[in-house]
Amino acid sequence: MSCVTLSNIDKRFADGTQAITDLSLAVEDGELLVLLGPSGCGKSTLLRMVAGLEFPSSGEIRIDDTVVNDLSPQQRNIAMVFQNYALYPHMSVWQNLAFPLKMRDMPRDDIRRRVQRVAERLSLSELLDKQPKALSGGQRQRVAMGRALVREPKVFLMDEPLSNLDAELRLQIRQDIARLQRDTGITTLYVTHDQVEAMTLGQRIAVLRQGVLQQLGSAHELYARPANSFVAGFIGSPGMNLFQTPLRRDERGYALLIDGRPLYLRGGGYSEKVLSVFEGKTLQAGVRPEALRLTASGKDDFFGFSVTLSGVERLGHEVIVHFPAINRGGGYEAEHSARLAYQDGLQIGNDITLGLAVEDLYLFDPDGRAIARS
Amino acid sequence: MNPNRLWNIVNYLLLGMAAVLFVVPVLFMVVGSLKPEGRVLSEMGSLRAVLPTDMELQNYRDVFARIPFARYLWNSALINGLIVGLGLIVNALAGYALARLHWRGREAMLAVVLALLIIPFEAIAVPLFYQLSALGWRNDYLVQVFPFVANPLAIYLFYSFFLGLPRELEEAARVDGAGILRTFFAIVVPNAKPVFATVAIVSFLLYWGMYLWPLLMTVDEAVRPLPLAIATFYTLPPVQWGDILAFGVMMVLPVLVIFIVFQPWFVRGVATSGLKG
Asked: Cβ of B177 and A133 within 8 Å?
């Protein structure tokens, strides 16, 4: 049983690229932690540093109580599944599975027993004599998993293991991975750029952006309480609609401006005391696409605003509509979206009125940090 | 006739002429070696120079009678076998170190290797001769093998092939518990057969005909390679052209064998670009 602790990790490549900045993170014993972020955010670099394939410029990596900074990969007792599987093309499935054990000079009989056990567990028994090139994508993926599992490592590292599979297989193997990890209880670090994968697999998710840890928490925490506007916009499908707005105060209290009209914040959960700090400043505000609803204008409990549809995606049970962004021109996305219950007749070019409840609003300070609700 | 077809015909004609140009000297050598001495030169101007008629093996018998051919062949085989065999190990390791390992001075070393590619051996033969003579290395096998084991062309061929191998394979092996050398021998080498075949063929061809260096360094027939033996036929009268051609045929044969043995990998090396999957 083991845990991985990263303390103040910095990684700067030889060409001067800063890949990771002052990152601290602990993967607990038996946990599956997902590193999530857009491509180029440093998540794979981080994983490779835990594996020993890259070395941090500063900071400390510990597996259990051992500092492993200067240990080579083979001294760390970790296993890794690569994005393209990296099966040894000149070896049979059996030899691929036996390779990590051979490297540890395990007795022949033990190797046979372990390989057979893993092969049964992953339904690879029929394939043991085949060469990797004779296998399908899903089978290769299972061999790669088997090769990582056969050694019973302290830590399991997975670098986008599903990205080369088709959608159906991805769903199935995602569940297999979750079950396998639960059954074996091996501490796992899992890298992906796919938030659905992250949400479904990860007990906790670490969101990275440009080498900086943005937020660490459960799927629900990331969704319901994003730490900053990046996480808010990244999590969710589509992500949160973000826009810039001045914070004003008049006789009816604090208000945002949406397309020139005031939206009063009373009842939104933000205390006057907190808001007073930002009075007169330009804040970032956000609302989830699924929090918007279609309303008849003039109802009091929603702030209604009318939009012209620029895109309509029908998903069967619901429909995602796109429209020109609220307070457009503030440097944000050109389009916002709303996720509505399915209904016929929504067409590009239609004018509709969307309703926004004040308690569904998220506010971020000018630097993008979430403003706390009281 | 459509222009495409015309173009094809012209192409084949040109290629055919080139082929004839390459084949004729070899054919002349083989046919000439099988003729009585008197006809070799007298038939040069006719088609009979390349058409075998009334063949005999007398020239071959002469070669064996005039020089210890087996001894020369053995010397050449041993020297070349050692150069190629040791060279594959040394140059592959050097190429791997340049392609994959991180060490101070790697870039500079790579530049040096590339620079060495353009220096002809003849330019360093004499200084090398004095250096090794000072060490007392003369007139043995070692002095004919040692200077040629490390070869910049071979290093460069290995280097560029290893650069193109998918890095993940080696990383997987490292994570699976293999050290650098084990990764190299268990994972890299089995997936690099084409480059090994290429280097083996190229360096064998390069050194099989080596003349200047053994001439400088050896005096004793017991350690001299085949190319030096041919001098016997030019310098000791009578100059028998049939013998020379027979000797030539026997010297070319091993090269042909080596090429045929390694050729399947050689061709595959050119045809495949990577190892997907």
From this structure: no
Contact A141, A149 (CB under 8 A): no
ipTM, two decimals: 0.82
Establish if B274 touches chain A: CB-CB under 8 angstroms: no
Residue A249: Cβ within 10 Å count: 14
Across the A:B interface, residue pairs with CB atoms under 8 Å apart total 69
Which amino acid is present at A255? A
Give the nearest partner residue to B277 out of A52, A89, A157, using CB atoms.
Answer: A89
Contact A87, B277 (CB under 8 A): yes
B176 touches chain A (CB under 8 A): yes
- Pick the closest to residue A286 from A252, A256, A250 (CA basis): A256
Q: Which residues does chain A have within 8 Å of residue B268's beta carbon, measured at their own beta carbons?
A: none
- Whether this prediction's pTM lies above 0.90 is answered by no
Question: What is the pLDDT confidence band of residue B105, given thresholds at 50, 70 and 90?
Answer: very high
pLDDT tens digits for range A210-243: 999 999 999 999 999 999 999 999 999 889 999 9
| pLDDT, chain B, mean | 88
Give the phi and the psi of residue A207 in degrees, each rounded to 5.
Answer: -95, 125
Cβ neighbors of A192 (< 8 A, separation 6 or more) are A34, A35, A36, A160, A162, A163, A198, A201
